[in-house]
Amino acid sequence: MRINTPGSAGILPASIPALLLFLLAAISTAAPAKKLTVGFAQVGAESAWRTAETQSIKSEAEKRGVTLKFSDAQGKQENQIRSVRNFVAQHVDAIILAPVVETGWSPVLQEAKRAKIPVILVDRGIKVPDESLYATLIASDFVEEGRMAAEWLAKKTAGKANIVELQGTPGAAPAIDRKKGFEEGIKKHPEMKIITSQSADFRRGQGKEVMEALIKKHGNEITSVYAHNDHMALGAVQALDEAGRKPGTDVIVLSIDGIRDAFQSMVAGKLNCSVECNPLLGPMAFDAIEKAVVGQKLPKRTVVQDKVFDQSNAKELIASRQY
């Protein structure tokens, strides 16, 4: 009988199962995949839409076993910059940023890049000279949302409207782009014009205050209100109601976001239309993070597809709304 020595070429067939058991034991005792720690710099909690986005990211982090460090900037860019800088100092694996405004991010994102921490932008874009400062942007097409709103209003009014525009936060990507898209959409309709445009900072209370002032100034000249988000539109609805002008009939009111409160107002016949902007970005954000932390290249932008809702379909769809 031939016995194989350690230095010989052959191995006894009987030793193969033992070798497999050894390899399987080695695999089973290997260190588990590293648990990720992610920082999330949120704009604030100014609306139900924003709260829904926060909850989507928090719940997805919990589902995937990710340690999430959360900061609420309360609508101030300086607070967000401070939070991102703190996340870098804490050596997180990735950062999710929903930027308050488009500009002013290069210095702090340079710090993240030097630390090799990928930054995932959600729901709002930024303007930087070097796009390598962020890994990807996951957001709706705000310009297209504005166009969709304009197209809906043109059909509803047969291309004739005197419009009050309630803008979002000055300098914020959705405010800039939703204005741009809406203006592009009404250009082909000479009898549709914006008679005044004013910021109400994406807030319901300010939407009401601004609308009250504009009703006093423009009165029955106003036939339509276009708001950059539902909360401002709902504030405007309240102001119109209190002024004795029936929203939904005397004045056509449309907005963007598609929150549950907007659906309730459409069912009640007061808000006419809301263009969706989906805030449930948690799964997409963490899919991107899992690729970015292992060096996979991501598309520079992923566009979230949105829809148009109005009084014709709000009642049948309201029960399915998640935010």
Note down, in words, how this protein is organized.
- The protein is α/β, with parallel strands linked by helices and 323 residues long.
- It has two domains: 37-140 and 279-304, Rossmann fold; 142-278 and 310-320, Response regulator (Rossmann fold), CATH 3.40.50.2300.
- The chain contains eleven helices and twelve strands.
- It has helices at 15-28, 48-63, 77-89, 106-114, 142-157, 173-186, 204-218, 230-242, 260-267, 282-292, 314-317; strands spanning 37-42, 67-72, 94-97, 119-122, 136-140, 161-167, 192-199, 224-227, 252-257, 273-276, 301-304, 308-310.
- The strands form two sheets. It has a six-stranded parallel beta sheet with strand order 2-1-3-4-5-11, with helices on both faces. Strands 7-6-8-9-10-12 form a six-stranded mixed beta sheet, sandwiched between helices.
- Helix 9 (260-267) links the parallel strand 9 (252-257) and strand 10 (273-276).
- Helix 3 (77-89) runs parallel beside helix 4.
- It is elongated and about 60 Å long.
Quick structural summary:
The chain has 323 residues and is of the alpha/beta class. It has helices at residues 15-28, 48-63, 77-89, 106-114, 142-157, 173-186, 204-218, 230-242, 260-267, 282-292, 314-317, and strands at 37-42, 67-72, 94-97, 119-122, 136-140, 161-167, 192-199, 224-227, 252-257, 273-276, 301-304, 308-310.
- Helical content (DSSP H or I, runs of 4+): 40-55%
Rounded mean pLDDT score:
91
Q: Which word captures the global form? A: elongated
Q: How do the strands of the widest beta sheet line up side by side?
A: 2-1-3-4-5-11
Would you tell me which CATH topology of the largest domain applies? Rossmann fold
Radius of gyration: 26 Å
Provide the CATH top-level class of the largest domain: Alpha Beta
Spatial separation of the terminal alpha carbons: 76 Å
The CATH homologous superfamily of the largest domain corresponds to Response regulator
The CATH architecture classification of the largest domain is 3-Layer(aba) Sandwich
How many DSSP H or I helices?
11
* Element string (H = helix, E = strand): HEHEHEHEEHEHEHEHEHEHEEH
Q: In percent terms, what proportion of residues is strand?
A: 15-25%
